[in-house]
Amino acid sequence: MTPPRAGDDDRTRAWSDDLRRELESRLGPTVADTVWVTGSVGRGEAVPGSDLESLAVVDHRDPRAVRRAVAATDLSTPPWYAETSAASAADPRFVRTRAGWSTAAEGWADAPARNLGVVHLGLLADARPLTDDRRDPDLLPRMAVDAVRAHPAVLADVLADALSTRASVPSRLGRTFRGDPVVDLKTAVITPVVKIARWSALRAGVATTSTGSRLELAADPDLLPPDRWESLRVAARFVTGLRWDVRLRADPDGPGTDRVPLSVLTTAERAGLRSVAREISGVQRALDYLRSAGQIRDPG
Predict the structure, then answer these.
(1) In a 10 Å sphere around its CB, with 0-12 CB exposed, 13-18 middle and 19+ buried, how is residue 181 labelled?
(2) The DUF294 domain covers which part of the protein (predicted)?
């Protein structure tokens, strides 16, 4: 497998932190104290052009004022190019009291088929406060962990979601017949490993948000040998670095997209991408087999 470049994690973490601070500055201290970022920004894995997803905890603030402030804040312009996601604290569904979030988490874990329970638990699990001085920075991730602990059957749904899209990279052999093959770096490669890491963290009761930390702290040697967990960490670092590089060089007027023609990648990048996709897909197949054989036990 092609090794990751030094500093790949640092670049995405620094970008995510800078984006958080920019949003904090624009919202002002009163509103910023209620807002949490989630998704790639919350995990510290954002790149230029990543969606901006947010939640708010409003025990002592007017929720309408928070929603208005978030809705009025636009970071889609240079240098951030951060489009506001549908999961935004501008939406009443994502603005709740602490008790409201806890109750919602319990409901999502108890009945994940209703109201996109797996998706919403993922938003909580990935959440990080906008400000750095909160006394409870793992409040929302811990709610997700506690809800899963109370309703461990939901882990089967979380794993099924992680295995629903297999990591894959098209072959250039198809170019003659279908034109230049295109790979979506996020959907086809990054999302599967992010979801496996989130599942393993929820299963282990780990409230950390970054994919790399989850794969380190929540790796279960009874499910996969240590070298397979390490290969997932290497894969995540490699693809994150490649995603950063490709986005920045794709378009001088913007950050490009995650849909990349294979022809724009170097030979080494294509080889590395196929290698990590095979590794992630292999882990997915192994977990799928263990699941079908009934060998994945709920945490005790």
Answers:
(1) middle
(2) 180-288
Q: What are the tens digits of pLDDT across the range 72-82?
A: 999 999 889 99
Secondary structure, 3-state, 40-53: HHHHCCCCCCCCEE
What pLDDT does 61 receive? 87
Annotation: CATH topology of 154-293? Four Helix Bundle (Hemerythrin (Met), subunit A) (1.20.120)
| pTM of the entire predicted model | 0.93
- Give the pLDDT mean for 237-257: 81
Torsion angles phi and psi, residue 68, rounded to 5: -65, -45
- Rounded CA gap, 210 and 45, in Å? 7
H or E segment at 237? helix 226-250
Q: What is the CA radius of gyration of the chain?
A: 19
| Domain boundaries, given as residue ranges, for the chain | 8-151, 154-293
Check residue 242 and give its pLDDT. 93
Q: Are 164 and 288 in contact (CB under 8 A)?
A: no
